[in-house]
């Protein structure tokens, strides 16, 4: 049974153009990460990680956040770093895929570019903790929701390029101006 599944994955990879690189994944399709907020040295070599911008906001407060998600192909996690634009606090943490039944003995390179589902907690420099949960929509895009321990709710997107993320942050900043500022951590 496993041999047939592996054959199907190989055939699908070849048909979609994913024939080179690390474990059937064509790394030429993945944009290079310039200088991620978390250094590539912390995650292994440049060939073992890549990233995408993330941007979002608090739903009830005038606070927008932006940062990076860096995929670590060695341990199948997403390292997320954010900066809250108005308060200046920084947040970081790892998101992991829940057990979704996908065979874990298969090489990580045969799985999705972003974890289909990812959940985790970020710790912020102001004492805040953010719990994030996302669902990937394509290879390098996702949307998600989250909350902090004080009851604030968040919405965010993982986007495929930095220009789109910067434009989204500008729009969110303008839209959230009438909202009250983010309260201090209790």
Average residue pLDDT: 76
**Helix-strand makeup class:** alpha+beta
Q: How helix-rich are the residues, as a percent range?
A: 10-25%
Strand content: 25-35%
Q: What labels would you give this structure?
A:
Lipocalin; 186 residues; 34% strand; globular; eight-stranded antiparallel barrel; alpha+beta
Structural summary, described in words:
The protein has 186 residues and is of the alpha+beta class. The protein has one domain (34-176): Quinohemoprotein amine dehydrogenase alpha subunit, domain 2 (Lipocalin, Beta Barrel), CATH 2.40.128. The chain has three helices and eight strands; from the N terminus they run H-H-E-E-E-E-E-E-E-E-H. The protein has helices at 2-15, 40-43, 162-176; strands spanning 49-58, 64-72, 77-84, 90-96, 117-124, 129-136, 142-148, 153-158.
Layout of secondary structure:
Layout: H1 2-15, H2 40-43, E1 49-58, E2 64-72, E3 77-84, E4 90-96, E5 117-124, E6 129-136, E7 142-148, E8 153-158, H3 162-176
Antiparallel strand pairs: 1-2, 1-8, 2-3, 3-4, 4-5, 5-6, 6-7, 7-8
Summarize the structure.
By secondary structure, the protein is an alpha+beta fold.
């Amino acid at each position: 049974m496993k041999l047939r599944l592996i054959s199907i994955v190989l055939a699908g990879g070849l048909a979609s153009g994913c024939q080179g690189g690390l474990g059937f994944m064509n790394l030429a399709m993945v944009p290079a990460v310039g200088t991620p907020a978390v250094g590539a040295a912390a995650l292994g070599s440049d060939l073992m990680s890549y990233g995408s911008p993330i941007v979002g906001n608090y739903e009830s407060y005038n606070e927008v956040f932006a940062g990076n998600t860096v995929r670590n192909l060695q341990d199948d996690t997403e390292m997320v770093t954010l900066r809250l634009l108005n308060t200046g606090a920084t947040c970081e943490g790892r998101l992991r895929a829940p057990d979704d039944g996908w065979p874990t003995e298969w090489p990580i390179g045969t799985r999705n570019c972003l974890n289909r589902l990812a959940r985790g907690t970020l710790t912020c420099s102001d004492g805040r903790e953010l719990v994030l949960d996302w669902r990937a929509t394509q290879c390098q895009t996702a949307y998600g929701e989250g909350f902090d321990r004080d009851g604030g709710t968040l919405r965010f997107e993982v986007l495929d390029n930095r220009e789109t993320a910067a434009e989204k942050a500008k729009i969110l900043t303008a839209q959230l101006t009438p909202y009250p500022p983010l309260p201090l951590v209790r």
